[in-house]
Each structure stands twice: as C-alpha cells, then as structure tokens.
Amino acid sequence: MALLEEFRLNELRKEVDALDAIILGLLRRREELCIKIGIEKKRLGSPILDAKREEEVLKRAGRLAPLYERVVSYCRELQEGAFLDVHRAPPEESIGIIGVGKMGYWFAEFFRERGFSVSAYDTVWERVASTSRKLGVEACLSPEEVVAKSSVILISTPMKEVPAVIENVKKILESGGHNTKMVFDIASFKEGIVERYRGFPNEVKVASTHPFFGPRARIVDRHSIAVVPVPGREDNAKAVAEFFDRLGFKTLIVDAGQHDALMSITIGGSYATSIILAKLLAKTVSDLKHSTLNATFKYYLVYALNVLGEDVEFLVEVFEKDSVKRLLEAVSREVALMRTAPRAMLEKIEARSIREKLLEGSKSLSEPASIIYTIVESVFES
C-alpha cells in the first residue's frame, strides 16, 4: 500500500475511533436512562414491554432499524433483569444524608433510585431544597430530624467538618428514641476521623468509608468502595461492607493507616504534580491545542484541568494531611535525585521491577487507554 493511501486510511480510522467514543458514551447514557425507566415502571406497577413505544423508536431509526432493534432489545432486558430486583431497598431501611454537596447528591440519587426513603440536611438550605425538588428526597431542617427519620446515616460534609458531625450524631443517638442501625462517612482521608466513632451505642454499626469514584460516576455502574474499621469495632465494618455489597458495590475492608498511605499517593501525589504541571504550562505554552502535543501529554493536561476544578478548600485539606506531607517530602527527595543523578535513579527503578508492578496493577483499569486517548483527542479538537 502506498504511503499516501496508508496515511488516508489511518486518518479515516482515527475519525471512526472518535465517533466510536461518542457513540459508546451515548449508549452508556441510554443504558442508564433505561434502567431508571425500568425502576419507575416497577414502582408504578407498569409492564416492562411497551410495544407502541418500541415501534415509534424503531421507526425513527429508519433503515438502521434492524441494527437499532438490538439496542432496544438489550435495554428491555436490562429493565427486566435481576439488577432491578437484587439491588432494591429492604422496606425497613431509610437513608439520612448529612451534607448534600456533589457526593451527597450522588448518593441521594443512588438510594432514591433503589427505592429507599431518603431524607437530607445541609447547613446550606438551598442545597437541600434543590436536592428535594430534583430527586424527591425529604428536606430536613436539622441533623436531629434526619437521625429521627433514618435507619442508616451517611455523612458527606466537607472533610474538615466530618469529626464534629460524627460527634454531634453520637450525641443525638445517646439521647435515645431513634431507629438508627448504621452510621458512616465518606471522607477521602481517615486521619482524625475513625477514632471519633468510639463511644457510639453498641446497637449502631459504625465505620468510615471512601468511595473510589467521583460525583460524575454513572449511577448504574458497579463501583468500588473502601470500608475502614473503627478500632475495637472491626465487626461493624463487615456489616457496613455487607450493606454496600447488597447494593452492588465492590467493597474492600482496609485499615486507616493503609488507606491514608494509598490516598496520599493517588490523591495527594497526583494532585500535587498536576497542579505544578498546570502552573508551569500556563507560563510556557501559548497554544494548548497545538497539533504537536502527543496523546499522553494531552491526557495529563486534561487531568490537570480537572484537578484545578476541585474546590480549593478540599485541596487545602488534602495537602495539610500528615500522610500527604510525608509523601511530598519523599517526592522532593526523588526529584533531587533525578536532578543530580538521573541514571542512578532510573537504574534503581529497573532493579526494583517497578515497571512490571505498575503494568500488573494497570490490568484492573476499566477503560482501555486507547479509548481514553480518543476521548482526549476529541476534547482538544472541539
């Protein structure tokens, strides 16, 4: 094949790859919406099959109807499937959410769509009112009201507020007259948090949790969540993990020290390098859409921009954590070694087989790198 023809073929394939990324994203969104519709149908007692509606959809597809019929059939099977039955709320369980920021809102939507009765409180009333209007959760005027109405309490306030909220919930529960069976938070770091659960009533299961996903995650996907035991109440962590297991999550029980050591790298380290990179780029790169930027660099840049979109207070809290400070000190030492003796550093990396360890760990990534790169390319071309 002549060089010019091969170049044209590759360009066409790139265009197909970009379209595939868009189509797959739209299909995933359709899948999510169809499951939501299935949940509503079951709630209303309506039949899953709506022949007239399917006929209208296929008619719009025109000559692609035979192909699109497979999509419609797949989505109907999702609505009929076990997913809607297995991950439903037990009738006696109700959820109370204290703090309805981005992640609090995500969990409010998640629990509502699985049939839970959800009540919520936030120090910013407009957040509660907005969540109530959009999701149909019950807006509460105080933490006491949330606790009184809920068997499970989820604390999703800013990280620095979590210890005080835990203490307040403990005080409310000590006064009696509640039906609460479980309390947990979703803070990103556990330093200064897990020990706050000591002294909770024995009948209340307590643990600290950390979702390994963000507020943009799809409601219908099976996500991972860490469950961190409270010292002396390790059996409680198993109960909290089982609660999330029943709802379709993949759970990992890990102690606070291990958790924070890992988060100092995956959150603290990656955020720090991304912010520094973004700061340097702002000074040196005049055209970030320049065609000479390679895919890896573009992916890193998109991630850096995403980090800069985080709440400043959250970033400050992350970098003030002792585990993150220790990591940044270690990074400083490695940077100094790279500057003064790069060969020695690279040989040390090879000797420890770090590359092989990272490759083994990367096998668990849910999206192929090629798809991610394609999406990044489309961001820069838009």
UniProtKB/TrEMBL annotation:
Q: Which SMART domains match?
A: CM_2
Its Gene Ontology biological processes? Answer: chorismate metabolic process; tyrosine biosynthetic process
Classify the source by domain of life.
Archaea
Q: Name one Pfam family in it.
A: CM_2
Q: Where is the Chorismate mutase domain?
A: 3-83
Question: Which region is the signal sequence?
Answer: none
Record-linked InterPro entries: Chorismate_II_sf, CM_dom_sf, CM_II_prokaryot, NAD(P)-bd_dom_sf, PDH_N, Preph/Arog_dehydrog, Prephen_DH
Tell me where in this chain the Prephenate/arogenate dehydrogenase domain is found. 93-376
Task: Give yes or no: UniProt keyword Oxidoreductase.
Answer: yes
Named from the GO MF annotations, one term is: NAD+ binding
Q: Which UniProt keywords apply?
A: Oxidoreductase
Extract the PANTHER family matched here: PREPHENATE DEHYDROGENASE, PREPHENATE DEHYDROGENASE [NADP(+)]
Entry protein name: Prephenate dehydrogenase/arogenate dehydrogenase family protein
Q: Organism source for this protein?
A: Fervidicoccus fontis
